[in-house]
Design a protein that fits this description.
five-stranded mixed β-sheet; 29 strands; 43% helix; 817 residues; single chain; eight-stranded mixed β-sheet
């Protein structure tokens, strides 16, 4: 194993023999516009009970190591710097060189094609601070950090703390509170800045919202600041612990691998939240949720941090839960639980049914495993389980436990036991059995109702509290239940009062979405849903019904063609744009992956989307959603004349004035079908010389039928940026299967080399994105059988993609029957 892949056992030992009292990090970014490397000097104050340990660094080289002012031999293997002769309290200074990144890991450098400006930002989770400065790269060795950054004088430079002073071109930042390495941050470049302020009683917090200069016309900074102020006020009060990190900057950065990152005082976000194209209310709601998710991390994760990545859920599950909770309580997006039920839990259910699923409290033996556990279990399942816990013990006791947790462990590191102790002290309940049932197990329970016997049947029984609604037609024909039953499940079967469940009613388990379980609609309920889904007036209930039917479709228990028919009948009348967007996305997957007669389904779905695009209210969110659905659908059906008519203006749709993003989606469809030329795509790029335009052009040219060999070479032999890798993969896999099936053998032959030679982010994109969508799992099975010793993280990726393929094949077979 490479020494870069730190293990839990060795970092635990290091934490027993080393404590860190301070870091001072000097970064020389003055050559960032042209040079491939930057200089770094890291000074670390530590105490060691062992004379030997090591620092972590993934850089271009180490030039000098000093221990207590004495020159030490440089012992550096490309990942670790040996420290020898430590004498209790020691000062270690390392002079080194780092590399600018194009993978979104470490110190990423982006040159804006719109104006040629250079932008830098750091991204470290879980363990990439060591790509920028020598450090002890583990979450439980916290310390205060002082950053000194030399950069062009005209640049804005940000870090976790406020700027203390400027010495020439060097910005010196105030020391941070004790934090972990992975949440330190540096941002530098000619960023556009909008300032604000939040006042919470006697606490004044300076706010900043930032983006690239070329995106400034699209930045709705005041909307971002409104959500920020609302969130800070809310968390201040509900946690009874004031914001602990001084100022609060938020930066939208290019080519970002994540949605956002919770660096205290300097939160970074994907630029996709700066909307160049008209955005739906659901997109604004998702951005608000992400802002609040990252803000919750200031307490869950930054103030109190997990000991090791086993307890990653201690921060991510809580932040995911609190993002929706705060959206409902503190913003205009009071329907956030609808989106949570439709999108986040769908991610959890999918991840939790893979062979590689894991408990929420996972067994993370090393950093490779940690990187891959930022998944639907850690985020969405964990958040769903916390929602159930709040229902189980009551929200007041749940939040009271959080307050105790912060007071007891501020600026420290914790495990599950610490959290449970605080929750138990708040709720006066023994939560051990609950934690065993929910946090230490895998897989979702499945809930069904037996009307004849009046029972709820639960697979994989867990203690849970849920509501049961019997949706019954009222005088207007709407399906309602104003008094759902509260039921506590424990065993495999639980009695429930179903005297109102007569013909024409829908029995909806988990009404209100308080628990985490797959719900199956019984046959009588399905019959009503298939004729009267539009008669359910409650948004959350419709969302839960759609979710139940979609889960049954994925499990090959409900024919995919029936799901597509259901979508064609009821998506056009769906009033909630967020539910509509999810249904359209699910239907596209059903058409491409799960339906047996794909050609028929593609044509029907494309024409349905076009009809709804023409008929939707001009300028509405629904019109935007149908335009996006149609743009994706015409990749696979011949509607070239309609596409070109819209692009050229021969067809005009009231409310649609195609912008760059929308035009690129249509040109991508034409390219994938072989109905566009390279010259045409180059002409489109000439009108959109932006970062997003270049990425879209890369994807579209990669989708051309004759581009496969060129794209394969670019992906496997060259080093495009992280965002260009994603675009090339999207183009390569966009067309019909016949154009790429000749690369199946090459895919499996390259896997070990890719995993060894590329960073884990790029390797993951290639392994997942290029996985062959064959008509059997034979090739994947053969590779897994012949490569038992390949890295566990690589095998996990292949196993998961193999399982997705097997699920699609089962669904297709069931649909054909």
């Amino acid at each position: 194993m490479s020494t870069a892949n730190l293990t839990r056992s060795e970092t635990a030992h290091r934490a027993r023999v080393v404590t860190v009292s301070a870091y001072d990090v000097v970064l020389d970014l003055s050559g960032a516009r042209t040079e491939p490397e930057f200089g770094v000097v890291a000074t670390i104050e530590l105490a060691a009970s062992s004379p030997e340990t090591w620092l972590d660094f993934l850089g271009a080289g180490v030039d000098r190591v000093e221990i207590d002012g004495r020159e030490a031999e440089v012992e550096y293997d490309g990942a670790r710097i040996a420290l020898r002769g430590l004498t209790g309290a020691s000062t270690v200074r390392v002079h080194a060189r780092g590399r600018y990144s194009r993978t979104g890991e470490g110190l990423h450098r982006f040159v804006d094609p719109a104006d040629g400006e250079t932008y830098l930002y750091t991204q470290y989770e879980p363990a990439d601070a060591r790509r920028v400065f020598p450090c002890f790269e583990q979450p439980n060795l916290k310390a205060p950090f002082t950053f000194r950054v030399t950069a062009p004088a005209e640049w804005l430079v940000l870090s976790n703390e406020r700027l203390d002073r400027t010495d020439g071109d060097t910005r010196v930042f105030a020391p941070t509170r004790p934090i972990s390495t992975y949440i330190t941050a540096v941002v530098a470049g000619p960023y556009h800045r909008v300032e604000g302020r939040s006042v919470q009683h006697d606490l004044v917090i300076d706010l900043g919202v930032h983006c690239r200069k070329s995106l400034a016309p699209f930045l709705d900074a005041e909307a971002v600041l409104d959500v920020t102020r609302a969130g800070l006020d809310f968390f201040h009060d509900v946690f009874d612990y004031e914001y602990p990190f001084g100022k609060y900057d938020q930066v939208f950065v290019p080519e970002y691998n994540l949605g956002a990152m919770e660096n205290p005082g300097c939160v970074t976000f994907t630029e996709s939240y700066v909307f160049r194209s008209p955005a739906t209310r659901s997109q604004y709601a998702r951005r608000a949720n992400t802002i609040l998710h990252e803000m919750a991390h200031m307490w869950f994760g930054d103030l109190v941090t997990m000991q090791w990545w086993d307890d990653l859920w201690l921060k991510e599950s809580f932040a995911d839960y609190m993002g929706s909770y705060a959206s409902v309580a503190a913003t205009e997006f009071t329907d956030a639980w609808v989106a949570f039920a439709q999108r986040r839990k769908a991610w959890a259910y999918s991840q939790d049914q893979l062979p590689t699923t894991h408990p929420i409290v996972a067994d993370i033996v090393d950093l490779d495993a940690a990187k891959l556990n930022f998944d639907g279990i850690t985020y969405a399942k964990g958040a769903s389980v916390l929602k159930q816990l709040a229902a189980f013990v009551g929200e007041d006791d749940f939040l009271g436990g959080a307050r105790l947790y912060f007071r007891r462990h501020a600026y420290g590191n914790t495990t599950l036991a610490d959290l449970l102790a605080a929750l138990q002290d708040s709720s006066l309940r023994d939560l051990g059995p609950w934690a065993d049932a929910w946090l230490q197990t895998t897989g979702p329970s499945t809930l069904t109702v037996d009307r004849a016997r009046g029972v709820i049947v639960q697979t994989d029984p867990r203690p849970q509290r849920l509501d049961v609604a019997v949706l019954t037609p009222d005088a207007d024909g709407d399906l309602v239940d104003r008094a759902p039953q509260e039921v506590h499940l424990a065993g495999a079967e639980t009695p429930v009062d179903l005297t109102r469940a007569v013909d024409g009613t829908v029995v909806l388990l988990n009404d209100g979405d308080h628990t985490y379980a797959k719900v199956r609609l019984d046959d009588a309920s399905l019959a009503v849903v298939e004729t009267s889904l539009d008669r359910v007036p409650d948004d959350l209930r419709r969302s839960l019904i759609w979710s139940a039917v979609w889960n049954a479709t994925r499990d090959a228990e409900y024919p995919a063609s029936r799901f597509v028919d259901l979508a064609c009948r009821f998506a056009p009348s769906e009033p909630h744009e967020g539910i509509l967007g999810s249904v359209l996305a699910d239907t596209a997957v059903a058409v491409e992956r799960y339906v047996a007669d794909r050609d028929r389904a593609r044509a029907v779905w494309a024409d349905t989307a076009y009809e709804q695009l023409l008929g939707a209210e001009a300028g509405s969110d629904h019109q935007l959603e149908w335009l996006r659905a149609w743009s994706a659908a015409v990749v696979h059906v011949d509607r070239t004349d309609r596409v070109r008519d819209l692009l050229t203006g021969r067809t005009r749709i009231d409310g649609i004035a195609l912008d760059a993003e929308q035009r690129w989606a249509l040109w991508f469809a034409l390219a994938a079908r072989g109905d566009a030329t390279t010259a045409e795509l180059d002409d489109v790029l000439s009108t959109d010389r932006t970062g997003a335009g270049e990425v879209a052009h890369t994807a579209a040219t990669a989708a051309l039928p004759d581009a496969a060999a060129r794209v394969w070479t670019a992906l496997t032999e060259e080093s495009p940026s992280n965002e260009k890798v994603g675009a090339l993969v999207r183009g390569f896999t966009a067309g019909e299967r016949a154009r790429t099936e000749g690369y199946d053998a090459r895919y499996y032959a390259m896997l070990d080399d890719v995993w060894r030679e590329r960073t884990i982010e790029i390797a993951r994109r290639l392994v997942v994105g290029l996985f062959p969508q064959a008509e059997s799992t034979d090739d994947a099975d053969r590779w897994l059988s012949e490569h038992p010793d390949s890295p566990a993280a690589l095998r996990r990726q292949v196993i998961e993609q193999r399982d997705h393929l097997a699920r699609a094949l089962r669904a297709r077979a069931a649909d054909a029957e």
